[in-house]
Amino acid sequence: MSQRRAGPRSRWALVAIPIGWIVAVLVIDVLAPPDIHLGPLLVAAPAITASFGGPRTVGLVAALAVIAQTAIGVLRDPDDLLSANHEAQIIALILVGTSLVVFCVLRERRAKELTQVRYVSEVAQRVVLPPLPRKLGPLRASALYLAAEAEARIGGDLYAAARTTSGTRLIVGDVRGKGMTAVNDAALLLGAFRVAAHRRADLDELVAYLDRSVCWDLMEPGEAGRFGETFITATVLDIPDSDGPVRMISCGHPPPVVLRDGRPTTADIRRPAPPLGLGELAQPRYHVDSFPFEPGDLLLLYTDGVTEARDATGAFYPLTDRITGWSESDPDAFLDRFRRDLLRHVGGHLNDDAAMIVVTRPALPPE
């Protein structure tokens, strides 16, 4: 959430502080004994203003400080106004004020650049990683993405959902690497998933298609050097609208967790496939696992940025231990609590991107 700028009244209230400082130094210096000189303290006024004001405000306060220093010389000893001491103090004020004005100009330019970067990042996120629909047939869903980079909004973690005639298909994944290359790979896989998720009848056919799409991209001209070194871990799920188990294929990705009555259960992955992008080398056979997902359950899908998040002592985030006993049934409320808990564990800063999807099958109303 962006911070609101201070209103005109707040800004002028802050400007009153350095102006009051200038007036106080002027009055005290004029009334002080001849051997006490407080003029050098005037430099604090533009320095204070630079902490909240722009170039014009800082320049105005610096000019007032120069005028005050001149007034001190006139009122205390007019004959000594052009002495080396007063000239040095006035020149020092001018140099400091000019430096602070230049600093404020550069700071505002930097702030504008960061604002533009944030805007571009947010647009890219909406294009590559749009928000999950709140409703997926009878299911309720929400997603959370926490980028490790301070000014980033999207990285190599990915997720998407697609409706079919009988249910919902989900994918969550993590691209090896960082930067724009990882974003491009994530966009490629998400595009392939959105195209094929509702067309491929069998889950293994869908995953095989996704693997071929990643492999084909890595074998494009200019990308050959990344083949065999770049891959994407992913879990693809098929959740039926009616009661029934969730079907899943895991490609080297952390297993889903089902939270039922505050008790987490990690899905059993019997034969995981290799990550996507290694199919030409590994020639995988995709095995479909399944696990129950009943009304009232919460299904958690996440990337390794969650479970590998470390605290100050180097301890990993114990996902299942931390969520034991949680009673939130709303996906948004659950993710809000999870975000606060994860950031508290790592001290406010993640070393890797982290993403989580929460899906619920609302409990049946009592008869």
In short:
The protein is of the alpha+beta class and 367 residues long. Helices cover 44% and strands 17% of the residues.
Order of strands across the biggest sheet?
Answer: 1-2-11-10-7-8
Cα end-to-end separation: 43 Å
| Largest β sheet strand count, sense and barrel closure | 6 strands, antiparallel
Q: In which range does the helix fraction lie?
A: 40-55%
Name the CATH superfamily assignment of the largest domain: PPM-type phosphatase domain
β-strand percent reads 15-25%
Quantity of strands, as a count? 11
Integer-rounded radius of gyration: 31 Å
Please identify, by name, the CATH architecture of the largest domain.
4-Layer Sandwich
Number of helices: 10
CATH topology of the largest domain: Phosphatase 2c, domain 1
Structural class: alpha+beta
What is the overall silhouette? elongated
Notes on the protein architecture:
With 367 residues, this protein is an alpha+beta fold. The chain has 2 domains: 8-122, no CATH class; 131-360, PPM-type phosphatase domain (Phosphatase 2c, domain 1, 4-Layer Sandwich). Helix content is 44%, strand content 17%. The strands form 2 sheets. The chain has a 6-stranded antiparallel beta sheet. Strand 5 (232-240) and strand 6 form a beta hairpin. The protein starts with 7 loop residues before the first helix and ends in a 7-residue tail after the last strand. The model is unreliable at 1-5 (pLDDT under 50).
